[in-house]
Amino acid sequence: MRQNQKRTFPTWGIIALVVVLIAAGGLGYVFWSKQHDEKLAQKAVEDYTQALEKQDYSAMSKMVTTASLEKIGYTKEQMIERYENIYGGIGASNIKVSDIKKEKGTDAGNYQVSYTVDMVTSLGQLKKQTYKTTLEKGEDSYQLDWNTALIFPGMAADDKVAVSTTKGNRGELLAKDGKPLATEGKAWQVGLYPVALGEGEERKKNLSAAAEAFGVTAEQLEKVLSADWVTEDSFVPFATISESEDRPELKGIVYQETTARTYPLNEAAAHLTGYVGEVSAEDIEKDPTLSTGDVIGKVGLEKAFDKQLRGKKGGKIAIKDSEGNEKEVLQENRMEDGKDITLTIDADLQQAAFDQLNGQKGSVVFTNPSDGDLLALVSSPSYDVNQMTAGISSEDYQAYADDSDSPFLTRYTARYAPGSTFKTITGAIGLDAGTTKPEDTSKVNGLKWQKDASWGNYFVTRVADVPSVNLEQAYVYSDNIFFAKEALKMGEKTFLAGLDKFIFGEDLKLPMAMKPAQISNDGKLASEALLADTGFGQGQLLISPIQQAAMYSVFANDGKLVYPKLTDDQETAEPKQAVTADAVATVKKDLIQVVENEHGSAHKLADLNLPMAAKTGTAETVEKENGEKETNGFLLTFDAESSRYMMVAMMEDTSSGKVVDTMKPLLAKIDTLIK
C-alpha cells in the first residue's frame, strides 16, 4: 500500500512570497496615500476659494498656515481686519475665482497653487488679478501659505491701498423749452450749535424744541452731538430742508446754505420727476458700483433715467508703500457728468393743468396727437417732492401714506373703466364693420333696456329718455343703450377684431410703471351682458388715461394710432391704421356736435369759440353702502382743426359734468398755453 506524502514548499519560496506580498502592499499604500493627499489638497483649495468668493474672511483665516502669518508679523485677526478694511474700502463684491491650477511642489507633499480673481469695486469691474501660493501638508489637511500678496499681487505687508473718488454733476430733467424740472438748487442744512444749547434743563428743553420742529427725536440729536469730532463751537448738521421751507429761530439751531436736488414745479410734477435719495444697503447689493453716501433716483423719472443722469463715478485705487509712494494703480476711471434729459413736457401747461385740479382726485393728460408727444402728465393730489429729497420726517411721510386721497398714487398710469369716452372707438369699429350706419336709428322708450327676458334682472340704463336716436344723437346724448345695441350687432368676434387693432395688452415702452390696457379679465366678451357693457365703456375694460389718449389719437390722425413718447429720442412703434379715415371723419363730426349742440354733454365748452371736438364719460365703479355706485368723470377733447392737442381729463368720485366745469378755465387759455 502506497502512503500519502505531504508536499512542502521550500523555505526560500515562502520567503519570496512574503516579500512579494509586502511589496505589493507597500505599493498599494503609496498609491492610496497619493490619492488621499490629492483629495485633501483639492478640498483645501476649493474651500479657500469658495470662502474668498463669499468674502468669509474668518473662514479663510482658518485655512492658512500659522508659520506664514508669523513670517510677516500677522495674526489671524489682523489678516481678517486687512481684508475687511481693504476690500470693504474699495467696495469689493461679486468676487469670482477661476483658472485654478494645482501642481506638485518641490517639497514632498506640497503643491503650488495659482488662481485668477474677478471682482467689482465701487469704480466698476476690476481687471483680472492672478495669485500664487503654496499648499503645505499638515497632519490631516492642507493649508495655504498666506501673505498680503493674496489680497493684491505685489502687495507687501506694510503697504496700503488708497482709494480716491470723484462724482460728476447729476444731469438735469428738462422741459421741452429747456426749463428745469429737476436740477441743482439751493437748500439749507440744519445744524446744532452746542455752546448755544445751554446746560441741564435748558439744554433738554432746547433739544426737545428742535426735535419737534424738524421731525426727529431728542435721542437722535444727542447721538449726533456725541460724535468724537464735536466741540462746543462745532456746526453739527442733522437735517436738510428745501429753500421754500420755514427756518424757525430756535436756540441752538443754525442754518448753512448748501446745494441739493430741487424740483421747480414741485407738486405739479412730483409723480413725473420722482426724487433722489441716499442709497440703501439694498441698493448697494443690487449695484456694487454704489457706495454709502451716493445719491440715486428713488422713484419716477429720476429712477427710470438714473444711470444716464448719474453719469460715471471717477477715481483711482492704488497700492502705496509705507511712505505713501504709489507702487501700482489697480484701477482708474475718468469722472463723467450725467447727461441732461429733455422731455416732451411743456412746463407751463403742466403747472396750469395741476393748478386747475386744485387738489381734487384726478389726472390730466395732454398730448400732441400728431407725433405722440406727451405735453402734460398731471396727477392730483400730490406731495412735496422737494421735502422728500431733502429728507422728510417719518411723521410727515406717514401722513402722506395714511391719506385716504392717496397722494402717492400716479393716476395717469392707473387703469380705470373709461366710461362713455370709449363710445368713440365702439362707433368707429362699428362703422368699419358695416354694422353701424349713421342714418340708422335706435328706438327705445324709457331709461332702461334689455335685449330679452333671458337677461333676467340686468338692464342697460341711460340718462336721457330720447325715443329715437341715430349715431350723432347717441354721441350728443351719450346714449348707453345705442352703443350696447351696436356692440351686440357686431358680435364678439367682430368687436374683438376691431379692438385688437388698438393697444390692448401692449407695453407702450414708456419710462414708467403701467399695466397694459385690458378688454376683459380673460380677453373675451363671451356673454351678451359683457359685450353690451363694453360697447359703452364699462364691463371689464381697464385703460389708463395715457392709454386712452393713445387710443383716441386715431380721431386726430385719420384713423392712425400714434404711440406716445416722453423724450424726443424715444423710439416708439410705428403708427398703425386702427380704423379708416372715413369712420374717423364721421365720428369726429359727431364729436364736434357734442360741444356745439345745445343738448351735448360738453355744450358748456361752446362759448369758448374754439374748434373743439369732445366726448364726456361717467364710469360707474364700486357700489356704496346705500346701493348707489361711485363714479369717475372723464372728458376727452381735442383740436378739431389742426390737431395741436388732445386732452384726457379724469376726476374720481364725480360726474363728467364736474370735469367739464373744472377743465373749462384751462381750455379757455389753451391758445396761450399751446402755441
UniProtKB/TrEMBL annotation:
<dbReference type="GO" id="GO:0005886">
    <property type="term" value="C:plasma membrane"/>
</dbReference>
<dbReference type="InterPro" id="IPR036138">
    <property type="entry name" value="PBP_dimer_sf"/>
</dbReference>
<dbReference type="GO" id="GO:0071972">
    <property type="term" value="F:peptidoglycan L,D-transpeptidase activity"/>
</dbReference>
<dbReference type="GO" id="GO:0071555">
    <property type="term" value="P:cell wall organization"/>
</dbReference>
<protein>
    <submittedName>
        <fullName>Penicillin-binding protein</fullName>
    </submittedName>
</protein>
<feature type="domain" description="Penicillin-binding protein dimerisation">
    <location>
        <begin position="166"/>
        <end position="329"/>
    </location>
</feature>
<feature type="domain" description="Penicillin-binding protein transpeptidase">
    <location>
        <begin position="362"/>
        <end position="658"/>
    </location>
</feature>
<feature type="domain" description="NTF2-like N-terminal transpeptidase">
    <location>
        <begin position="41"/>
        <end position="159"/>
    </location>
</feature>
<dbReference type="GO" id="GO:0046677">
    <property type="term" value="P:response to antibiotic"/>
</dbReference>
<dbReference type="GO" id="GO:0008658">
    <property type="term" value="F:penicillin binding"/>
</dbReference>
<keyword id="KW-0472">Membrane</keyword>
<dbReference type="InterPro" id="IPR012338">
    <property type="entry name" value="Beta-lactam/transpept-like"/>
</dbReference>
<dbReference type="InterPro" id="IPR032710">
    <property type="entry name" value="NTF2-like_dom_sf"/>
</dbReference>
<dbReference type="InterPro" id="IPR007887">
    <property type="entry name" value="MecA_N"/>
</dbReference>
<comment type="similarity">
    <text>Belongs to the transpeptidase family.</text>
</comment>
<dbReference type="Pfam" id="PF00905">
    <property type="entry name" value="Transpeptidase"/>
</dbReference>
<keyword id="KW-1133">Transmembrane helix</keyword>
<dbReference type="Pfam" id="PF03717">
    <property type="entry name" value="PBP_dimer"/>
</dbReference>
<feature type="transmembrane region" description="Helical">
    <location>
        <begin position="12"/>
        <end position="32"/>
    </location>
</feature>
<dbReference type="InterPro" id="IPR005311">
    <property type="entry name" value="PBP_dimer"/>
</dbReference>
<keyword id="KW-0812">Transmembrane</keyword>
<dbReference type="Pfam" id="PF05223">
    <property type="entry name" value="MecA_N"/>
</dbReference>
<dbReference type="InterPro" id="IPR001460">
    <property type="entry name" value="PCN-bd_Tpept"/>
</dbReference>
<dbReference type="InterPro" id="IPR050515">
    <property type="entry name" value="Beta-lactam/transpept"/>
</dbReference>
